[in-house]
Write a structure and sequence with these properties.
CATH architecture of the largest domain: Roll
Radius of gyration: 17 Å
Largest sheet: 6 strands, mixed
Strand order of the largest sheet: 3-2-1-6-5-4
Shape: elongated
Distance between the termini: 53 Å
Number of strands: 15
Helix content: 10-25%
Mean pLDDT: 90
Number of helices: 3
CATH class of the largest domain: Mainly Beta
Order of helices and strands: HEEEHEEEEEEEEEHEEE
Low-confidence stretches: 1-14
Number of domains: 2
């Protein structure tokens, strides 16, 4: 490995993700990449079928306000995201009640737990349909798949007249 490549790899966090928050590229623009409401990636209208390519691109995703970018040390390119860049496809529940942990896995293999850093909430799509979301990392949300949403609905409890779920000691209203 060259010294510059070793330096870049050393910057990756413990999960192997590049430190995009530390990248401040001079070159900005847009690229014809779109993530649809099912979490599928498209380049110039053609679906990207290579899961490893999608997983790689997902590591350099960045969000500013309601805009999404692919961000490297050299470039920051805006992309289109219809609902959320990730889809939560699995939910593992550990423990129960106020001490339960809701551990999600998304469509690119990220594993994360709802809690203080990874908020869970219910929003709406532009069509007015419920859109349950959870933060994966760095303010990047995952839309819960229908199966995960139904599984989560079975865990709803009431706290002071508000319905929601517990994870990592945090109560997330979903009413």
């Amino acid at each position: 490995m060259t010294a510059s490549l070793e330096a870049l790899v050393a910057q990756f966090d413990s999960r192997g993700k590049p430190p995009v928050e530390n990248f401040h590229p001079d070159k900005t623009g847009a690229i014809d990449i779109r993530i649809d409401s099912r979490g599928e990636w498209f380049y110039r209208g053609s679906k990207i079928d290579r899961k490893r390519m999608v997983a790689l691109f997902s590591t350099i995703l960045w969000r500013e306000a309601d805009s999404y970018f692919l961000k490297t040390p050299q470039e920051k390119l805006q992309i289109e995201v219809e609902v959320a860049p990730f889809i939560a496809v699995l939910l593992d529940v550990e423990d129960e009640g106020e001490s339960q942990s809701l551990c999600f896995t998304d469509n690119t293999g990220n594993r994360f737990t709802a809690g203080r850093e990874n908020k869970l909430w219910l929003s709406e799509t532009t069509a007015g349909e419920p859109a349950p979301l959870v933060i994966v990392r760095r303010n990047l949300p995952a839309l819960l798949s229908r199966a995960v949403y139904y599984q989560l609905a079975e865990l709803i409890v009431e706290k002071r007249g508000v319905t929601g779920v517990w994870s990592e000691g945090e109560f997330f209203p979903l009413g």
